[in-house]
Amino acid sequence: MSFGIAAVRTIVTATAVTALMGAGQAFAGAGESLDASYKEDGIIVALAYSHGDNSQVAIYDGRADSMSVYTLYDRRYNTGLRYDNSGGAGTTAYSGKDATNFVRKVTACVNVQLNPDRCGPDDRPGDAN
């Protein structure tokens, strides 16, 4: 099988563009696992995460303590979002899915009534925090 110079250039160009598109998405945070937790005495009280294509965020309540948990999270096009889980101990709440406006940061927090809330460190790709 023989390829002309134009055909080889087209194939090489298409391959390079495809590789760069994938690198851009990975750099932006899509598809990177995000995990953040709030712990007390080594026990996970709240766990926030986004996995796979990062189209949704999840928040898990790990302790029966009459306090709900929530996540503060950022998406590609929105920042400062909040998603609550008031289902009680052992439950996980899931946000809506949007693969285009993927999740980029999650923080796990406990809603402490009449006191400042307690939050663990956030998980933001590449921010060193």
Task: Provide a short characterization of the protein structure.
The chain is α+β, with helices and mostly antiparallel strands. 19% of the residues lie in helices and 34% in strands.
Defining key terms:
129 residues; alpha+beta; 4-stranded antiparallel β-sheet; 1 helix; 8 strands; elongated
Give a verbal description of the structure.
It contains 1 helix and 8 strands, in the order αββββββββ. With 129 residues, the protein is of the alpha+beta class. The strands form 2 sheets. A 4-stranded antiparallel sheet has the order 1-2-3-6, with no helix packed on it. The chain has a 4-stranded antiparallel sheet with strand order 5-4-7-8, with no helix packed on it. A hairpin with a 7-residue loop joins strand 2 (43-50) and strand 3 (58-61).
